[in-house]
Design goal:
seven-stranded mixed β-sheet; 11 strands; alpha/beta; binds nicotinamide-adenine-dinucleotide; 11 helices; binds zinc ion; single chain
């Protein structure tokens, strides 16, 4: 098991990565010294946790439609009826839906009680459970209500991934692929090193930009590498793509765009394709994509205060670039058709 420090100023914590990492949970809980432990998960999840401390399980519904204020309200009410107090601990066990929802409930309950995140999807391990962003959806849009709330520890037990459906694994790989390009650090060959390296990269980025300062073009913004096209493909709606699968396509697109703007070499674009191949990810637009629609959607991206805005690779690394010429965007979309 690899321990990675997430050095958030004033709220540092450790992430434990490896097969059997869940064995670290008991020590983490004993150090936090709660009277009781509220375990949040959903019915039917094959991975569970145990503790010798007094505990109770609080299930929420499965899937994105459960990531709501209503679920947060219900969790907080059930915790209150059980007598959960500020000195107690929440343990969230599940994918990003569970860790985001339980995280926001923990941030709000008694104005904040400690939470230990136990992500059980690859995407949760390398992204959702790390960084302290928590929140839920509104009918008006995804992740519109939330809070920054750092966990006390994150436990990534790779044994949990054995039951993960192939498409969810692919989705996690898409997000993992992104980390190959953010700092130039090598991720290693086995999954344990790759997940630990990804967490380390995200940890260092967020430690420098804890609350996402919009003027910081090399802070949390770089974690959105590959995401502008990915979001357009996801909101464009008609495609059967998991989030990380869309990010994978977005990564090659961003590489082609950076090449078209003469920021990176042909070789560097090939590096992007090679990493996607390593994870068996698709690197082309889905059949039937409409470039004009994608461009219109990308103009409406929340980062796009100044024309078309992308996170792009370049001679000094990955950064946010504003006012990208539409002609280059068109060329890059053409190159990945
Ligand atoms: N807070 C952040 O910084 C952040 C970052 C990225 C994504 N997210 C959020 O994360 C969510 C997506 O997370 P996700 O991809 O983990 O989706 P998810 O939580 O919906 O999980 C995907 C599916 O896998 C199942 N599952 C989970 N673990 C399993 C296991 N070990 N074995 C078998 N099945 C398992 C779940 O029940 C679900 O059906 C989105 O809501 C997104 O907004 C948040
Ligand atoms: Zn993502």
């Amino acid at each position: 098991v690899i321990t990675v420090e997430v050095p958030v100023p004033g709220a540092s914590y450790d992430a434990y990565v490896g097969e059997g990492a869940v064995e670290a949970l008991e020590k983490v809980l004993v150090d936090l010294a709660p009277q009781r432990v509220a375990i949040v998960s959903h019915r039917g999840l094959p991975f569970t946790v145990r503790t010798a401390l007094p505990s109770k399980r609080f299930d929420i519904g499965q899937g994105e439609t459960s990531k709501t204020l209503r679920t947060v309200g219900s969790l907080c009410s059930r915790w209150a009826r059980w007598g959960l107090s500020r000195g107690d601990v929440v343990v969230a066990v599940g994918g990003g839906v569970v860790t985001d929802t339980a995280g926001f409930a923990a941030a709000s309950y008694h104005r904040g009680i400690p939470i230990v995140q136990v992500p059980t999807t690859l995407l949760g391990m390398v992204d959702a459970a790390i960084g302290g962003k928590t929140g839920v959806n509104l009918p008006e849009g995804k992740n519109l209500v939330g809070a920054f709330w750092q966990p006390s520890a994150v436990i990534c037990d790779l044994d949990a991934l054995r039951t993960l459906p192939d498409r969810e694994v692919a989705s996690g790989y898409g997000e993992l692929a992104k980390y190959h390009f953010l700092t130039g650090a090598e991720l290693g060959l086995d999954l344990e090193s790759q997940v630990a390296a990804a967490i380390k990269i995200k940890a260092d980025v967020i430690a420098d930009d804890v609350r996402e300062d919009p003027s910081n073009t090399r802070g949390r913004a770089i974690l959105n590498y590959g995401h502008t096209l990915a979001h357009a493909l996801e909101t464009g709606g008609r495609f059967d793509l998991r989030h990380g699968e869309a990010v994978a396509i977005g990564l090659v697109f961003a590489a082609e765009l950076a090449r078209s703007m003469e920021r990176i070499s042909d070789q560097r674009v090939q590096d992007h394709r090679r990493v996607l191949q390593q994870y068996s990810l698709h690197d082309r637009l889905p059949a039937g994509s409409d470039p004009q629609l994608l461009i219109d959607l990308m103009r409406r991206d929340k980062k796009a205060l100044h024309g078309l805005t992308f996170v792009l690779d370049g001679p000094t690394g990955v950064e946010m670039v504003r006012d990208v010429p539409e002609i280059d965007v068109r060329k890059a979309l053409e190159a990945i058709r």
